[in-house]
Design brief:
The protein is mostly helical. The chain has two domains: about 1-90; about 100-180 and about 205-314, no CATH class. Helices cover about 70% and strands about 0% of the residues. The chain is built from twelve helices and two strands. Strand 1 (about 90-95) and strand 2 (about 100) form a beta hairpin. It is globular. The two termini are about 35 Å apart.
Length: about 325
């Protein structure tokens, strides 16, 4: 049963990954859920089924397209899904002999680490020479801003603005932005897969209290280290920027979880949550850093320690 489920999941995942080459908006959207079948196989049929999915999907992409795309599928979509699902199902007995599942906060740190590795792997796939990588990224962004090679500009710049200069500045932000964007993508795929597997009755882990998610204090040190590394330049700086972006995204999600947890049972809960989600839709870049700061504060001083523990059924 495991090989059949794994092979099927791997082939579906490979198909979702490769449709992006058509260039349509729907194909791009489908590529975001490419890890989902691997997550489902690993969560519902254990991690060995997930490994079969990784192998079958990688082989399919390699045979149908080429080896480099097969490796991109494995590193960028399949292996991260398998590893995160494997961690999500880890459990041990605590001092009282009760089962203790892998903490959501630590899982979120691993998701940030995986997002960093995927970002760095994508950069190295473009070129192992940093200057070449930077030129390629700058040129691609310049095409988006000013058009060229038979395509018009995607973004209209005001008159007198130098597209090349803006492109060079944006290229420096790509690693942090990519690291940050991969975190919610992985989290969303994990959540969807866990929901689907739970509905089928195959999820071994009891459904966790997601608002209780809190990152460990050590993650703050990781964020500081990433920020400092980002000033180093070259691929070392790229690693630091990707790590910083990924951890900021993780802290932002933890901050949002803290708002849910701290507002439980309060009269202002509903309007506050509605306002926050509306603000995230309208001005994500402005609001999200404040949630990240809340997540950082919660990791350092535990804003919820005086709050009575919430019931999972609440």
């Amino acid at each position: 049963m495991l090989p059949i489920v794994g092979i099927g999941a791997g082939l579906v995942s490979a198909l979702l990954f490769t449709v992006v080459i058509t260039g349509s908006p729907l194909a791009l959207l489908l590529s975001y859920v490419a890890p989902l079948p691997v997550f489902i196989a690993a969560l519902g049929w254990n991690h060995r089924a997930g490994l079969v999915a990784v192998a079958s999907g990688t082989l399919a992409v390699t045979v149908v397209l080429k080896l480099s795309l097969g490796l991109a599928f494995a590193i960028g979509a399949a292996l991260p899904a398998w590893w995160i699902a494997y961690l999500a199902l880890l459990a041990r007995n605590d001092d009282q002999g009760n089962g203790e599942w892998y903490p959501l906060g630590r899982l979120l740190v691993w998701i940030a680490a995986v997002a960093t590795l995927v970002t760095v792997g994508g950069a190295l796939a473009i070129s192992t020479d940093f200057e070449t990588y930077r030129r390629v990224m700058t040129h691609g962004l310049q095409l988006v801003l000013s058009g060229g090679e038979g395509i018009g500009p995607v973004v209209r710049l005001p008159a007198g603005v130098d597209a090349a200069e803006i492109a060079a500045q944006l290229a420096a932000l790509v690693p942090a932005a990519a690291g940050a964007s991969f975190v919610p993508m992985i989290v969303a795929n994990l959540w969807l897969a866990a929901k689907a597997v739970r509905l089928s009755g195959r999820l071994p882990r009891p459904w966790p209290l997601i608002p209780s998610t809190r990152l460990p204090a050590q993650a703050v040190a990781g964020l500081v280290g990433g920020i400092l590394l980002s000033f180093a330049g070259g691929f070392i700086g790229l690693v630091g920027a990707a790590l910083a972006g990924a951890l900021i995204a993780a802290f932002g999600l933890a901050g949002l979880a803290a708002v849910h947890d701290l507002s439980r049972g309060k009269s202002w809960r509903t309007p506050t949550l509605l306002a926050i989600y509306l603000a995230l839709v309208i001005m994500l870049i402005t609001v999200f850093p404040f949630l990240a700061l809340l997540g950082i504060a919660d990791a350092l001083i535990d804003l919820r320690r005086r709050k009575p523990p919430a019931s999972p059924a609440a």
